[in-house]
Amino acid sequence: MPVRRGDEQRRRTYAARVRRVAGRPSVATGKGRYLTVRVVLVGVLVVATARLVQVQGFEAAALSVKAENQRATLITIPSLRGSIEDRSGVKLAFSVETRALSVNLRVMRKNWAEFAKQNPTKGQNFETRAAAAAAFIAAKLPGKVTEQDLLADFHKQQDFTYLVKDVEPSIADEIVKQFPEIGSEIQAAREYPGDTLASNVLGLANWRSDDPDVSKHGVHGLSGIELTYDSDLSGTPGQKIADTAQGDDAFVIPGTERDVRAATPGNDLVLTLDSDVQYVLQNQLADYVAKSHARDGQAVIMDAKTGEIYALADNETFNPNDDATYTSDLMNDKAVSTPYEPGSVNKVICATAALDAGLVKPDSVVQVPPTIQIAPGQTVHDAWSHPVQNFTVTGIFAKSSNVGTLELAQRVGPDRYLAMLRKFGIGQPTGLGLPGESRGYVPPRDAWSASTFGNLPIGQGLSMTVVQMAGMYQAIANNGLRVEPRIVKEEIRPDGTAVPEPAPKTVEVVSPQTAQTVRDMLRAVTQNGRNGNSGTGTSAGLEGYQISGKTGTGQQVNPATGAYSDTLYNITFAGILPADNPRFVVGIRLDAPDTTLPAGDSAAPLFHDIASYLAQRYQIPLSNGPTPYVPLIVP
Fold first, then answer.
1. 344 catalytic residue (yes or no)
2. Got the DSSP string for 260-296?
């Protein structure tokens, strides 16, 4: 259809006008918009200025209080203390996470005073709130805290107080949910599932918060292995930042925790102890002490080759789960801390020195008189009356002749004897690492009197612990090589890596040949013969096994007179199981038993019972035949 000229002109004119408007703004429109923006900006500035004046001039105090009540706080995350296990992985001590409930009394009083003022008709105030909280907490924690004790805590005249500790986390959460003003602090409690089992070795650890450095708050050792290895067990605390409210760090605002550095758990300790053997030794020792009417007793079971301690016992010890037993006497590990004069069990040193020097042989004959003078006016006699008799060297030690031992000691000489004494480790720390360990006592050579060398060879005038005593026989059992005893086997890091303890130090006391000769000779101690050919420890014998050992009866000093007592003794025994292929060494000491009783006269029967248990538990192979009979006294 043809377009009329007039219509075409109108469309072109309209289109051109549209293009002109779109391509070039008019001057009038731009000025209007600029004016509008200026007006808006001025308005915003006026409002902001007014708000700034209000904040700085009128609300500064209120906002300062709010900032104080809600601030970023650095919070320490306690590390989990490592566990202590026996050689088979049985846990002897471990930690569990707990909560300590607390309250900021200053804030609680202030808040509830304000609430009561603003809500006078509701009848709620600090007193009603404290009573409700005390009733609720006591109901949730029966046997741990009473409502009366809690009410007393709420009414203390102080700003802050702990209410109850060692609360299970789930119960603590319930309490805090019901009463948000109650603070819940992460802590830990140390658990000892065996109660008194090996507590003399383990010691005690508990939550400590007395250090001004909060990062050091945590479970720390107070005694025993827990103290010695505290830094290894403790781990490294972590940290987190959180906003806290109500002017108290215990009130963390949910969802504000940040910049968390996780705590690193402590290392686990693996001990050389066997918890079953430890249990049996503790009980057998306690029963025997009671039967012998002794004041107390100590015993140790040691690996004959490695020096590892399988059990270390006092007849009575404390329960780390019961603070009523935290007495100095019960917490004293006398097996390492209390030295004593061992008596004839110490004669092994003279026997070893004489044989090692080639002065005698086991079947050498020595004429032994009934007494021997060791200094002017001082005479030593045997425990039984006898005329001059011919003893074999084996017989001197099997029958425990004091006179015969001193006859041999004079051949050895004091200097050679002292050198051998030191090689056996007497008067020196054992290296065991338990706190409070005694090194025993050997008088210095330049302090020896005329009678000193008449006492030392028979186990008087010097002292040792039961661990040191067993260590002498460990050297004989291990072919003359003394190995420092140890009670910690390895540490297990949090990543599972096992880190063995450093290898123990060793001392070559005598040659393997001399050690075997001494070991074979001491088998006669358990010999049951006729015509005076029985040893002093026949009751230590164990059917099917050859036993080497030595009895001891050491006089104690009477504290009232300062002289040796005729009624107070240390009854000792040290033995090797079995003598022909040593596996264990056992040392026993009874403190002042009633020597008129069969059990009080010798510790050999207790050795028999311990050895019998060890042989069964570890399926120790039988010896290759009975102990050979040897003469002890000859015509």
1. yes
2. EEPPBPPPEEEES--HHHHHHHHHHHHHHHHHHT-SE
